[in-house]
Amino acid sequence: MRPAVVLLGALLAAAPAAVAAQAQWERESLERLRDSIRFSADTAGILALERVLIEEAKAERLEPMHHLRLGILALRLSELQPTEPHLDHAIGEFQWAAELRPDWPWPWYGLGLAEARGADRAGGFAGGLFTMLGLDRDRLAGYAFARAIAVDPSFIAGLLEFARIALSQRIDAPVQPALDALRASTASPIGWDADLLLARGRLERFAGHPDSAVVAFRRAARLAWRPDEALLELARTTPLTGPIDGRRGRSIREATRRHYLAAAATSDSRVAAMLRRDLEPILQREELEAFDGLAPGERGAWLAEFWASRDALDLREPGSRLAEHLRRWDVARREFRLPPFRRRYRWGIETWQSGDGELDDRGIVYVRHGEPTLRIVWPRSRPSTSRTDPLTRNYGNESWRYDRPDGTLTLHFVARDDPQDFKLVETPLELDVALDQLERRAHEVPGLDRLIRAGPNTQTWVSEEVRLQGRASMAVATQTDSWQRDYREILSGRAQWLAAGVRDGHPLVHIVYALDADAIRALPTPATGTVPVRVRASFLDREGRAVATLDTVQFVAVPGPGALMVAARAEVPVAPGALQVRLGVELGPEHGMVGPIDSLVAAAPSARALELSAVLLGRPGQSLPWEVNAADTAWLDAAGVYAPHDTVTMYAEAYGLRPGGEAKVRIQLTRRRTGLGRIFSSRRTAITLSETIPTGSDRLVLLRELALDDLDPGEYALEVTVESGGRRLERRRGLVVR
User: Fold this and answer.
1) What letter would DSSP give residue 281?
2) Distance (Å, rounded) from C-alpha 127 to C-alpha 130?
3) Environment class of residue 314 by beta-carbon count within 10 Å: exposed (0-12), middle (13-18) or buried (19+)?
4) pLDDT per residue over 623-670, tens digit each?
5) pLDDT digits (tens, 9 = 90+) for 316-339
6) Is residue 465 within 8 Å of 493, Cβ to Cβ?
């Protein structure tokens, strides 16, 4: 333990058992004076009162109350006239009072308030020296508050300020002494004060005791006149008490969401600022401006929709992303907190600047994306003491890798100014790591192996390519947020989603997926001969709002020995328009797959102009059936691979037609050419079908059978074109003939 923390602990341990000598009426008179000028901007009036008190203090120099009152006035004047030396006067008056009555808590409390408003020496020139000597702002204020508690352990104001210092001080924070003092003060219901319980809960959480923190926050919520702050702290702490994913974490997720949204309805600007701070690392400027413009009554609904969309995007249970976000904040504050020194950026070297004053770049990325798949803490090639050039100085190097369905992110961090301040860099060339260490783990870091093995002729362009990849990873890592589902075993297979048909007036999306048959056969087979497969899907509009979700369990028959894939279908109605879609399929908590975010256009059944659905394709009797109505059945194939003698069924729907008019339909199957075939071979159409159909309603159903007629093996494109009312639309679908 550091000497400063030991000293503070010794002060509290030496606290007298008896009540301090300062009378209650003296404390109340000081509080009344402080309250009377707290919101006053009458500088002339306060200065006039100060002159009167100075004359009284000259007459009675040994009266500590005179000096305490002068210190309170000087404190307020330092806020109104910051360029004048009022703060130094306040410190001098409180020190004088402390010399006269060291057994009173108020002189030390006032001295702590004055020191806490002083200049941040740790953030300025020679900040490290001031911190090392214990002369930084937080250290001096914390020492004074500790003295106030030492002479009177029941002094609430001193306890609260000491707790605040313990949480805000970033080097040698007196967390345990402050926590011990608060535990002693709130040990019985007699000492249960809402503010004290809030302070104790924050310290309990910071010290790694979330269960005790929850108890303190619950008591504070019951006792507080306005429990919003306690409810928000309760929401921040509940995710730390147990797992938050799966069924085991359901009660934790629900409690977190309930407390969070209850606090979000607050009209307290301080609680609103706390909510905003929680969101800052993951929101863009426009989103923060939208949040700032919300009225108190609108904030809860906005946040509920915001977090529901995040749950949907990551295929998580309701409330999961909020709970995970608050858990990440707790980890970031412990492990990635910036030192108190001023953060500096070098022009042209740091390509991204977070602007955050609490977390380093690792903390920002952690809050956005959570625990990396791989985290490498590299050993430095040379001790930092041998570096005199600030541009090459190095205190640490890390590389993080995130394996994601949307693409791998590779991030590199370097600490140049302080061992606790890591900044993102574009390329591993900026890491201060010995070559043998890089070679040892090069296969784990994308791009590093190529960079090491590049020869003199390719080194330049390989370095530039790796740098551009690193910059792209930085852009994704610092502008998006996620909580990817991680599976111990990745399930192989394929999936597609097609919007065709109508249910209850909404477009219907068919999710067709095919899974590896060996993976299903490897599962324990129940007596029914089927295994459960969980299917999750989310659909979001252009603003990122979830417009439809699917979370269902389907039972798939165990395939025979000769089967390679097992196909199944699910369906869900969605909102019309351009959508983002994400799909996940799993055979168990540790065996599944999540697809990347993809796009989908769902035609509107009630459209006034022509719109065309996706094209469904399959083999009757062999593909997955979909009963359109009592008379028609469409077929869906997950693989899209057919034999030359097959007959396939095509299905599509057109909306927005004019009743009594006509629609021109053309169906065309064209051979695709690849490579040199595109240059030396002309485009060849294998099948063409054209017809004009009278439109009896605003909806047209196209159900056609196509005989492949011994087509040559290869890749083909099926094009469906509909023309009506002066508008022409086309949909394409690929297929393979083998």
Assistant:
1) G
2) 5
3) buried
4) 999 999 888 899 998 888 999 889 999 999 999 999 989 999 999 999
5) 999 999 999 999 999 999 999 998
6) no
